[in-house]
């Protein structure tokens, strides 16, 4: 079971690193815009991303 967690963590790190590696200036500008979101907006985005991730995991099983 721990192998799956490590594989998932590794895949997440690879996916997270693609944008700053390929498009550093666009990535920096996007982070600048995201940092100006209200708390409610950031929470809604976080909730939406978590639910999408859970749905993907559910559909994979």
From TrEMBL:
<keyword id="KW-0472">Membrane</keyword>
<dbReference type="Pfam" id="PF09838">
    <property type="entry name" value="DUF2065"/>
</dbReference>
<dbReference type="InterPro" id="IPR019201">
    <property type="entry name" value="DUF2065"/>
</dbReference>
<keyword id="KW-0812">Transmembrane</keyword>
<feature type="transmembrane region" description="Helical">
    <location>
        <begin position="6"/>
        <end position="23"/>
    </location>
</feature>
<keyword id="KW-1133">Transmembrane helix</keyword>
<feature type="transmembrane region" description="Helical">
    <location>
        <begin position="44"/>
        <end position="60"/>
    </location>
</feature>
<protein>
    <recommendedName>
        <fullName>DUF2065 domain-containing protein</fullName>
    </recommendedName>
</protein>
